[in-house]
Specification:
- It is built from five helices and five strands.
- The protein is of the alpha+beta class.
- Strands 2-1-3-4-5 form a five-stranded mixed β-sheet.
- The protein is globular, with a radius of gyration of 14 Å.
- The structure holds tetrahydrodeoxyuridine.
């Protein structure tokens, strides 16, 4: 299933809404991530920081946990929102986390002010280590 422009616009709005609910009192760098999954649903979360800094969770991985908990399996598109003036790309750990549940999907980097950059996950993490590397152990 290829996401429609309408689905993608809704996905961007969900990422921005999740950004508003992020818990980032330490960095004050709020991020929202929204995932469109193959059941047609959108799952979103913001980053969740912690007084013990390394315990903090990025928005993308929080959204993956939300999606899996809701019974979703494959991710068709992701939108990542920040409050910066320019679109911001996801960290390496979140690129790896996305690869587990997605093919070469569009990664939409959006700002609150409506700027947008779209990259492919395969371009963000080429030659990725993934589930197939463990197959047939
Ligand atoms: N952060 C994300 O939520 N996603 C990323 O891809 C990069 C970083 C969060 C982690 C931390 O709460 C804050 O942004 C500053 O690094």
């Amino acid at each position: 299933m290829r996401p429609s422009p309408r689905d993608l616009a809704e996905l961007d709005r969900a990422a921005i809404a999740a950004l508003e609910r992020a818990y980032a009192p330490y960095s004050r760098f709020r991020v929202g991530a929204a995932l469109l999954t193959d059941d047609g649903r959108i799952h979103a979360a913001g980053n969740v920081e912690n007084a013990s800094y390394p315990v903090g969770l990025c928005a993308e991985r929080a959204a993956i946990a939300v999606a899996i908990a809701a019974g979703a399996r494959r991710i068709l598109a992701v939108s990542i929102a920040t409050a910066r003036s320019r679109p911001v790309a996801p960290c390496g750990m979140c690129r790896q986390a996305l690869v587990e549940h997605a093919g070469d999907i569009p990664v939409r980097l959006v700002t609150r002010r409506g700027r947008r950059r779209v990259l492919r996950l395969g371009a963000l993490l080429p030659a990725a280590f993934g589930p197939s590397a463990l197959a047939g152990r």
